[in-house]
Amino acid sequence: MRFFHIADVHLGMQPDKGCPWSEDRSREIWESFKKVIQQAGRENASLFLIAGDLFHRQPLTRELKEVNALFASIPKVQIVLIAGNHDCIKGELPSRRIAWAPNVHWLEEEKLAYVDFPELKTRVWGFSYYSREISSPLYDEIKVPKDSPMPWNILLAHGGDEKHIPMSADTFRRSGFDYIALGHIHKPQILEENYLAYPGSLEPLDKNETGHHGFIKGECSKDGTRIAFVPYSVREYKRFKLQVTERTTQVALENGIERILEEHGRHHIYTILLEGIRGKHTEFLPESLKKLGNLVSLEDHTHRAYSISQLLEEYEGSVLEEYIRSFDIEHLTEEEEKILRLGIEALLESGEELL
Ligand SMILES: [Mn+2]
Predict the structure, then answer these.
(1) How far is the CA of 249 from the centre of ligand 1 (A)?
(2) CA-based nearest residue to 273, from 247, 252, 302, 251
């Protein structure tokens, strides 16, 4: 029995609002979702599991019809869904809002329920959110009953932080499931090999969601469960540090950023951090840097060049002064000078009250 597991697609979300690529991202979320559905069909997967937050908020009827049309296009794949905190159920049940294709199964109750697939020898368990927050650890006591008639038991579970059903790998030890399909945490992670995993958001949704994004493919067989993460997203968020020196000019910096974009792909979305010491008269122009490509954020952590005597004067009576004076400034070895510089930069960057 082979399955696909996705979560946190957040259909209807528009990432990076105000940035030139923002509307494209909104479309790409739909496109990736469509593509992964089609792939499950082509690969004849038996089950397609959606562990919550398929939608960014309570879905519009139009959106439900859209996803239903996609589900209907892979009639041999059984689709099981729960609602997460973002798309939590308000008002009418999703199953009653539109006429769903026969292969679509909502676990839309507030209490644990299941749907059986006798031909797959599989029972899929889960429940849905009816509010944006649930702080009680509802998954703590869940176990597969000894008399479950199905050899394979899979749980869809959404949450994992303080306000969204706290849980950990320990929660599910000895729970008896063959696989637990998690949702809510956007960073893909396998908490326990072949047993407990977050696929993460299908497409990354903000600049902190760096790295690969995609879905999980798995199989339950007589040898047990096997899963693997499949990188799939159209784009990635990437973060790079650029080291600046006193000789770095605006043009040099632009060239440095160009090289990164060229090497790592212009379609990705970047955060660039500037570090080090800039020249006494240098001010970088962030707006021109942002025009170079998809730069969602530019963090300038550089410090203006300084001389030791100037620092002693400027930061008189501070930890920084104390630190500098702990060295024999007149007789520094090369090694000591390096340590002194690193310490000064660390203190300047620490944001401590130095004055
Ligand atoms: Mn969530």
Answers:
(1) 44
(2) 302
